[in-house]
Amino acid sequence: MSELQTDLHYITNQTPSPRRTKRNKRLLVVFLILWLILIGSGIWLAKWYIDTTKEQMTIAIEQQTKAEVTALADLYQANLVKLDEQYEKRMDELSSKVEALNELLTFTKDNADSKTDNSNKLYSELNEVKKQLNELKKNLDVLK
Fold first, then answer.
1. Do residues 81 and 142 both lie within one domain?
2. pTM for this prediction
3. Is there a single domain that holds both residue 94 and residue 39?
4. Whole-angstrom Cα distance, residue 87 to residue 93?
5. Tens digit of pLDDT per residue, the chain (144 long)?
6. Residues 143, 93 share a domain
7. CA neighbours within 13 Å on the CB side: how many for 36?
């Protein structure tokens, strides 16, 4: 048994051969190079993925922004046209009112030149118009 122990001791205490150390160093270098390649390719793939995703998001946001700007421009144009129509309508109404006032002023100016009492004349004309209006209403009721 003592020979077995010495053989075992010899095997376990054996110093590695120079060939084996060289091989271990080569394997370690290859292992480190592979790890560096894996890490580098992982970093490159992550950067590529981020850049691609960022580009796709940028394109999507640009399209959405363009659509919203177009919609707002259309809405703005519609509102502008509507306001323009309302403006034209009000201007027509005001124009007709101004014309009526001008006619009334002309009428009063013409009547002011005469020597007769203008207020009595206007009052009598109003009464005549009211009488005619009442007669027209009666005729309309008869026609119905």
1. no
2. 0.45
3. yes
4. 10
5. 555 555 555 555 555 566 778 888 899 999 999 999 999 999 999 999 999 999 999 999 999 999 999 999 999 999 988 988 888 888 888 888 888 777 777 777 666 655 555 666 776 777 777 778 777 777 776 665
6. no
7. 6
